[in-house]
């Protein structure tokens, strides 16, 4: 029942690291499998310890709701219909950019999560990772 | 004291499932007893794993505050008097629609929680479940 | 990426319930998918609320270590090599009988967990459930 | 202060992976820094999802108490002076083999944790990782 191999995860992480280096922002980068469980994580030198769990949780959230985390941002603002979503699941949900599903055909078989930079930087690096999958 | 039977919970879930199928949105559906403890849960095929705990927590929240979760939304927005409520209980509270108390006469004897769709869909399916109680 | 359907889970639960009724011990019964996430749960009338999470965690543990939970009992006693295992994972591991993997050919695609009775009763009911898969 | 670099962590993990492959047991392998925070993790194909947190927690425990986790086993058995230690820290402590500090001169600057095999296998793989540091 492997959905994503370690080799897949490393390819995604390598591409994300390359982009992070290119933009000059060290990152926590995590890849999870289709069940949302950690397959691999790296904390680049200088990336935040506070972003360890956020990178993992961004990837988890992408599996949990089958979506990019950036698409949750608008829906969860005060006054919007999912306001409070991030509080409703034991502190594991992230509702801003940087988590992206990894697809094989029509199936989501894993996800990548990136954290430490601005959300734009996180998203850019996650996209570079996802593109290598 | 049994507050709700498994047969009750199954009748509520069956009605909710039927409505979910009718609107074409697979759901996580949970029923809790008067103490807020899980009586039964189903994750329909295609429903989100992130919605397992949210469906359970919607039902829990309905017991915890003896209310539909939708009625907490206005009170907890930024600037309103209960802003922050959803942070205040270990990640178990849900402040948007989809959780409804189950009443026997004047007593709340259980609750149903539904998650995966839009909040309107969740509420509609939870109402169908509650109506069957 | 469904590994087990709700219909599968219900068949397992129905067989477990039947056995529980036959031996006169109401049970919490949970089925999880290959990722260890809850697919369905029932608490039979009279089963313990303390056993809600234990039934779910027995099924989770069977996925987490690809084993029946009863096979962890001997290894984790004081003086044995895995003593302390149950403390090492945030309170989610169960190291006594009642959790059994569900297999499709060589793959573990889910698991069933049962709790409320003696461990012998829990195991007997879990086996009845697994046999129906 | 960087205590361990990502390059260090990767060298440790690579050596551990090589040993794991040699003995035919896929492993979860984690490296933490001097603060006990995750620097990198890999789950080899076939390693347990239950061992993700156990590998990380073995490395954490090695930092938390500045020791190999195997040295906690005797002290924490039933009847011994630290019986209950593993319960005393929120489910983060591991008291059996597989966690080893990484030393630079007299300082402990990180730790490696390994899980999925027998404790002997875990220890052997962790030692191979530590030796490469």
Automatic annotation (TrEMBL), chains A, B, C, D:
Q: Which SUPFAM superfamilies match?
A: GlcG-like
What is the top-level taxon of the source organism? Bacteria
Q: Report the transmembrane regions from the record.
A: none
Residues spanning the signal sequence? none
| Protein name per Swiss-Prot or TrEMBL | Heme-binding protein
Organism, scientific name? Rubrobacter tropicus
């Amino acid at each position: 029942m492997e959905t994503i191999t370690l080799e897949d995860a490393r390819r995604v992480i390598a591409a994300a690291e390359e982009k992070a280096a290119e933009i000059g922002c060290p990152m926590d980068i995590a890849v999870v499998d289709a069940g949302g469980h950690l397959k691999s994580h790296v904390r680049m030198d200088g990336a935040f310890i506070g972003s360890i769990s956020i990178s993992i949780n961004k990837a988890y959230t992408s599996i949990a709701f089958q979506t990019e985390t950036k698409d949750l941002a608008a829906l969860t603002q005060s006054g919007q219909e999912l306001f409070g979503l991030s509080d409703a699941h034991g502190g594991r949900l992230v509702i801003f950019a940087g988590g992206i599903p990894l697809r094989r055909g029509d199936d989501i078989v894993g996800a990548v999560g990136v954290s430490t930079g601005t959300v734009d930087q996180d998203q850019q690096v996650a996209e570079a990772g996802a593109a290598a999958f």
